[in-house]
Each structure stands twice: as C-alpha cells, then as structure tokens.
User: Fold this.
Amino acid sequence: MTIRTKADIAEIERIPVGERIRQGNILEVMRQAGAEHAGRTAIRFLSGTTPSDPVRDVRFDELLQRVMQTANLLRAEGIGPDDVVTILLPGLPETFFALWGAEIAAVANPVNYFLNAAQIAGIMKEAGAKALIAADPSLFADIWPKVEAIREALPGLKVFRVGGSGPAPSGVIDFEAAIAAQPGDRLVAPKTLASATVAALFHTGGTTGLPKLARHTHGALALAAWSNALMFDLPPGSVLINPLPQFHVGGSIFGALCPVAAGWTVVIPTPLGARNPNVVRDWWSIVERNRVTIGGAVPTTLAAIMNVPRDGHDLSSLEVFVSGGSTVPVELIRRIETEIGVPVVEGYGMTEVHCYSTMNPMHGERRPGSVGLPLPYTEVRIADVAGDGTIRGDCPLGTIGHVLMRGPQVTPGYLDPRHDRGAMLADGWLDSGDLGRLDADGYVWLTGRSKDLIIRGGHNIDPITIEEALVRHPAVETAAAVGLPDTYAGELPMAFVQLKPNATATAEELREFCRKEIAERAAVPVQVVAIPTMPLTGVGKIFKPALRLDAAQRAFDAALAPLRVDGVTATVTVGNDPTHGTLATVEVGGASDRAAIEKRCSELLGGFQIRHALRFG
Assistant:
C-alpha cells in the first residue's frame, strides 16, 4: 500500500478506521509483532559508538515476553489498572519493557529526566503517580539522586530500579530480577483494553512551569503506529536509528512503537542518543555497521551530522531520512538529498496527536519547506480562530491561519480539563497553536507558532522568514529569530545563530546577508548575535523561551545605559515570573534620590511591554 498523493489517502479512508486497523490496543500490537517476526531483532542497543563496544539485541518474541512480565510485575506489586507509573529511563531496552508494560497493566507516564527533582515531582503529583521506574547511576548518573528527592516528596511511592549491581536500596525493587520471576506467556490479571482506554500521560515540552499532561489512548497509539509507517511502505527487516529520548512522542511512538508494529529493527545509539556527542561523531559508522535504512533526527542533529566527514563509509543501506520536531531548513534538505542521494521526509506532529499528523510521502512528491499531507484518518484545516477559541471559518487556500486537527489520533484532552481551554475547540478540533497554510494539492506549510510571531508596530513578522535566510549563509549552522523588546515598536526582529565548526562571520556581515535575502524590509533583523550553542529542549528542539529572555535582557540592559552615564549602578535580570510571565528586575546601587531614580527608570523602561521592578541596594 504505497501513498503518493492525497488521492491515495482518500482511497484508504474509504474503509472505516475500525475495519482498517487490525490491532486496537498496545497488547495486540505487541502480540502480533511477536508472532509474525519472532526470530528477528526488534531492538538493538549500542552501549557505545565504536565497533568494539558491546551490542545487545532483543528479539520480537523476547520483547513481547519482557513486556508481559513487566505488566504482571506491576499488578503483583499492587498497581491497579488506573494507577499511574512514572518512567525515568534513558534509551535502554528496559525503557520499552517498562513503557509498554505499564500501558498494558496501568497508565504509563514517561517524564523528561533532565528536569530537576521538584519539576518531576510536580508532574508526578499532577498525574497521581503510584509507582516509579528509574535508572541506576551506573546507567545514567543524574537520575537516581533525583529519585531520592522525589521519594521524600511522594511518600508511599512504589519504586523500581533498573540496572545496578548488588542489593537494591531499602524499599526499592530490583526491576530486572523482579520481572524475571513473572510469567511472560500470559497476563495474570489482564486489564480491559478498549480503543478509548487511556494508555499513557505524556507531558508537553517545556522546562518552565508545570507542563500539561496529554492523555494517550490505546486505539490512537495503534493507529499512529500503523499510519506513520504507512507513509514509508518499507518491508519488515528495515532498520531505523532512533536517537530521541523515550519521554518524547518522536522517540517512543514513531521511533519505537511504529517500527515494532511494522517489523523493523530499532537501533538505540547509547542511552543518551543524539545528546551523546560521540553518537554525532560516529553517526556514519553506526549507519554502516548496522545497515540502517531510515535515518531519523531532529533538524539540529541533522545539521550537526552533515558536518561530520562521510568519506570511506558504506551508506548504501540508507534509503531515507525522516525529521520533525521543528521546521527543517530548506537548504538543509537540499544539501542532504544532493550529497547523500536519499530523500528527506519531513513531517509534523505533536504530543496531542500521538506523534505525526502530516508527512511528505516518501514515494510521492516531497515539497521542501512543506510538512506534507495529512496522514490517513487525520483531518487538517487552516482556520480563522478568534481569541476565545471560536472558529470563525476556513482560510482560503494559501492564506495563513491556525492549524487545526481532528480525528482518532487526537488526544481526548488533557488530564486537567482546565488546560483544554483554547486547545480543544468545538466539534472535536484541536488548535495546534501553529500557524500555516494549505496548498491546492493538500500539502501543509507551517509558518510559525502563533505565539512566536514577531509583532513590529502591529506588523506581523514570521520568524521562519529570517531563520531560513540565515541558514543559507555558508557559515551558519542553525538560526532562531525572536522579538527584541522595543519601547516604540513593541518588538523588533533579532536573530541568534550558531556557526558551523571553524566558521566565522561578523554580525554586520550576517545582517547584510539578510538584507539581500529577505524581501520584507521590516523583517530584516536589527541584531544578529552568534552564540556558542543553541539552547535545546530535552529532544533537541531550539528552546526559544531562553532566547526570548536573552533578547529581553539585552534590550533592558541597553535601555539602562543613560542611567549608568549619570553614575548610577544598575544591573538587570530578566526572568520568568509567576504573576507577570516575564519580569525585568533592576538592581540599583549608588543612588541617593530614590524617587528621582524611580522616575528616570520609568521614563527609560516604561515603554516596554515587559514589566520591571526596582530593587535598591
């Protein structure tokens, strides 16, 4: 079943989804994969990146056994069908045993282990977690110290330790030893698994505040596993490299559940994946040794590995690259397809739609810059949405509006229904928070986040326009445009860039390049700042909130210059604030007349949309 056009998807959808998908839950997906591909390798774990590092293979039948044993262990330890099991594990085979076993026996809650202990405990409290499965320091040093703090915050928590030698700490269960004692050929106390049964709670991305928990259902996960693989139409035995963490839908659903359902092998390149610099350094060697068919990575990782020499490596097994998480620069797509000779399939999705919702067809027309066609049984519309969430109507073809999605892959809502406001709209439509447009052939083109728009004196500027221009410069590896606070225009466009290794370019050179590349004069950045490395989220996306704070810090610091000329010491710190969202705190020293300083600061800073507060030393 090969998808090339929108018409092929429409033909598939002529059969109702309930008749089309044979597996209605994760257990059925695991059982079918275990039966059909029993002797093949489902998961290949690389402990290191060189040929001499140990490799661990898990067969499909063994995977099914370990998942069943995990489900039985949880029930044996008193975890009920509606209880939540939080998972703090890096990329390991046991991560998948825990994730899918918890989904079958209870409700899984994979959490970003890079968050601090208080943030993790906050997510667990919101989820109502009853159990925790976490990695021993021998596997990942930073997790277990957080576990100790979490246990203090959540007394009565059932804790399982993965890895380690010797007896487990007091009150902690040794995961591997415990599952080995459970039957792996049946479920002792099976949970009823309907299509609408909640399988997992995935938290949305972010490292400030308390993330929202999106509910994932068994039926939607089974559909996502099937539809995501369908866009590639590759046979069982294909090999996918998965460098993403499993607390993210890209790493757990497209990068793991999807290939297992399709009979592919998943290669896990060390526990940290792409966050391990050796994985990027040895990427092409890993592809060669493991005969990788599908190379998957977020755009920042793709850009990095394309700067690694490929000479001497046999890449003949490689058939396709797939990417998502953020828009892939068009120039990067063209470079990969020209230099390596394989297609780049860009897709688009989010936690709330169980991973991908649109994708360019591997065997059809791929339109660089577009995120492709809606996957089967997923509706996408571009709509005019009011501030209160009212859908005022569809936008004409080619016109930018809010990207809305509807279908069985869409979450039934957040765990806290208050978070549904503004996201879960009328008639089952989900507002993605992204802006985009549709073309006449059904391809979706993203134009930015609604909240990412740079608004210069009432004029909307799409940051992608600036970013795509900058990455065309030969010295620039990645770029991110944000609004620079301005007392007159509200915001002015500015950009941060990370240069390629050993490359140089001045700020004025990059601004002049933008003047030539960007037709819209108002969109030319007033500043271009080179930074050593882009701030990234746990899954490798550029973390723009950190850059917005950096931009605000620069704007406020520059605005205070006249005060310093008058001999007043003034330093400013811009940060997140629970009341104001963002707050600039000005520390003032050497001031004898506080009233005069307050008046002067009001004159200098009062025009910013960001509020400020003064502190006198």
Summary: The chain has a mean pLDDT of 92. The CA atoms of residues 362 and 422 lie 34 Å apart. The chain is about 30% helix and 25% strand.
